[in-house]
């Protein structure tokens, strides 16, 4: 990847250091003092290869810190105002966390079966969710995915 991946204002790329020995490895996933805002909830999802989740954004400002715990995910971020994009494959071969200001549309593609962790700055409120969408195949991002026939949720498939 080149510096072009860093064109979206506010997106932070945080290398994750793995400390390995004969037992396996250890990695610090999050340090709130290094983030623009502290996180208050952590979510975990499992996705099968070929799934795209998103693109979502949050009008009230929930920011996300993404980390792929196992497998490989392609993170895609769209600045809805400028059309600038950010993308990076993270996970097994590239242990990196991505901090995304929630006003940007963001999502990920499971390039392999994967476990994906979201640390978020606002608790989810099912009575008043702050979830809005941009279609995965929006012309500003369609070329960034590895697939043209993703597995989608009903919500993400809706135009």
Q: How would you characterize the overall build of this protein?
A:
By secondary structure, the chain is mostly beta strands. Helices cover 3% and strands 42% of the residues. The protein contains one helix and twelve strands. It has one helix at 154-157; strands at 12-15, 18-21, 24-27, 41-47, 52-57, 64-70, 72-78, 85-91, 96-100, 105-110, 114-120, 132-133. A five-stranded antiparallel beta sheet has the order 1-9-6-11-4, with no helix packed on it. A five-stranded antiparallel beta sheet has the order 8-7-10-5-12, with no helix packed on it. The chain is globular, with a radius of gyration of 15 Å. The chain starts with 11 loop residues before the first strand and ends with a helix.
Question: Which helices and strands appear, and what pairs or packs with what?
Answer:
Blueprint: E1 12-15, E2 18-21, E3 24-27, E4 41-47, E5 52-57, E6 64-70, E7 72-78, E8 85-91, E9 96-100, E10 105-110, E11 114-120, E12 132-133, H1 154-157
Antiparallel strand pairs: 1-9, 2-3, 4-11, 5-10, 5-12, 6-9, 6-11, 7-8, 7-10
The tally of domains stands at 1
Shape: globular
Tell me what the CATH architecture is.
Answer: Sandwich
* Topology as a string of helices (H) and strands (E): EEEEEEEEEEEEH
Strand proportion: 35-45%
Q: Cα distance, first to last residue?
A: 31 Å
What would CATH call the class? Mainly Beta
Radius of gyration: 15 Å
What is the H level of CATH, i.e. the homologous superfamily? Jelly Rolls
Helix/strand structural class: mainly beta
* Total number of beta strands: 12
Biggest pleated sheet: 5 strands, antiparallel
Mean of the pLDDT scores? Answer: 93
Number of discrete helical segments: 1
Strand order of the largest sheet: 1-9-6-11-4
Tell me roughly what share of residues is in helical segments.
under 10%
CATH topology: Jelly Rolls
């Amino acid at each position: 990847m080149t510096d072009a991946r860093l064109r979206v204002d506010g997106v932070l790329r945080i290398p994750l250091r793995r400390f390995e020995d004969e037992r396996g490895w250890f990695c610090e996933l999050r340090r709130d003092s290094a983030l623009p805002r502290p996180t208050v909830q952590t979510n975990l999802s499992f996705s099968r290869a070929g799934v795209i989740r998103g693109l979502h954004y949050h009008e009230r400002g929930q920011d996300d810190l993404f980390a792929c715990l196992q497998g490989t995910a392609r993170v895609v971020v769209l600045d809805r105002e400028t059309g600038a994009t950010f993308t990076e494959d993270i996970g097994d071969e590239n242990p990196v966390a991505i901090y995304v200001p929630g006003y940007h549309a963001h999502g990920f593609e499971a390039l392999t079966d994967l476990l994906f962790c979201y640390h978020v700055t606002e608790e989810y409120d099912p009575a008043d969710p702050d979830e809005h969408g941009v279609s995965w195949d929006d012309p500003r991002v369609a070329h960034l995915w590895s697939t043209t026939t993703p597995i989608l949720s009903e919500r993400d498939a809706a135009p």
